[in-house]
Design brief:
Layout: H1 2-37, E1 51-55, E2 60-64, E3 69-78, E4 93-100, E5 105-111, E6 114-115, E7 118-121, E8 126-135, E9 142-152, E10 160-170, E11 175-179, E12 185-189, E13 194-202, E14 208-216, E15 222-225, E16 229-233, E17 238-246, E18 254-263, E19 268-278, H2 281-307
Parallel strand pairs: 2-10, 12-19
Antiparallel strand pairs: 1-3, 3-8, 4-7, 4-9, 5-6, 5-8, 9-10, 11-13, 13-17, 14-16, 14-18, 15-17, 18-19
């Protein structure tokens, strides 16, 4: 028993040395492997694919119907890291260009003043372009969307990208006041109601509501409308208004000026009409009678003087 106690420390020391040697073997082998290869193993980062990207400051533009919309944008081609140490990092890439646009419009991409159906872009360069959109027919107020598409022209290359634009057409307001005959003159009889027809046309892109008719006439004249307020006129439609003009009975024959005006919240129109006032028939007869009496009186006077 005493012998075992003496040999136990020696056994523990031998066991510890043995375990240490066993644990050192992998390190020695790894070090030997590094010495054999002469370098550490390098893990390459995942490849970055090529991209086509776009930038614009005004993706949405507002204008009136019939105007041309011009959108400026920049196309950027990044070859990525797939083609490291290859010619793709220095070679231009050709992209075919198409534009998706709504019915009733035409749109195209331009480089400078030339329409671009395809374009060559250098790696990591910025290509300034424009997308022009023109309405071929009158368009309702609202938003219209366009998409410019770029696709690699190289066979088997799936690289593509797109950018969206929005054209906002605002409502236009225009009403026009004219006469039914197209003439800006009329003949009136003093002391009587004289009808005169006016036409209000809505040339706006939408319906116009609450159109008010008014007039400016000589002092003492009476001007009335059969409908002084038009509730609504659809775009492109017209409304006929009858006015009744009554110059005072003792109005002196001659030409006078009247002004008619149609007003809405967003638009107005006015016309000047020359009115020629004629004396009533009864006063014409009275005038003729007075002239006849004067002539007869003068003739009698001359007859009597001739007898003397």
């Amino acid at each position: 028993m005493e012998i075992i106690k003496r040999k136990l420390p020696v056994f523990i020391i031998i066991l510890t040395l043995t375990l240490s040697i066993i644990l050192m073997i992998p390190s020695v082998l790894f070090a030997q492997d590094e010495e054999a290869t002469g370098e550490e193993e390098v893990i390459a980062p995942p490849p970055v694919p090529a991209t086509i990207e776009f930038e614009t400051t005004l993706p949405k533009i507002q204008a009136k119907d019939g105007e041309t919309f011009t959108f400026d944008f920049v196309a950027i081609y990044d070859p990525g890291s797939v083609a490291v140490d290859s010619e793709a990092n220095t070679t231009d890439k050709t992209f075919n260009i198409t534009v998706d646009y709504p019915t009733g419009w035409v749109a195209a991409v331009a480089s400078g003043s030339t329409e671009a159906l395809s374009i060559n872009i250098s790696p990591n360069s910025r290509e300034s372009l424009k997308m022009l959109a023109v309405p071929l027919t009158s368009q309702e107020p609202g938003e219209y969307n366009f998409t410019v598409n770029f696709k690699s022209a190289e066979e088997g290359d799936s690289l593509e990208g797109s950018i969206d634009f929005t054209a906002v057409i605002t409502a236009t307001y225009e009403i026009k006041l004219t006469t039914k005959t197209g003439r800006l003159s009329t003949e009136l009889t003093a002391g009587k109601d004289n009808e005169y027809k006016l036409i209000v046309t809505n040339n706006s892109s939408i319906s116009v509501e609450n159109i008010t008719l008014s007039s400016t006439e000589p002092e003492g004249w009476q001007v009335n409308f059969d409908n002084k307020t038009i509730e609504s006129i659809e775009a492109g439609a017209t409304a006929e208004i009858t006015t009744v003009i009554n110059p005072p009975e003792k109005t002196i024959a001659g030409d006078y000026m009247l002004t008619f005006k149609a007003s809405s919240e967003n638009s107005n129109s006015s016309i000047d009409v020359r009115a020629t006032v004629e004396t009533p028939t009864i006063w014409g007869i009275v005038g003729i009678g007075i002239i006849v009496i004067v002539i007869v009186g003068v003739a009698i006077i001359f007859t009597r003087l001739g007898r003397r």
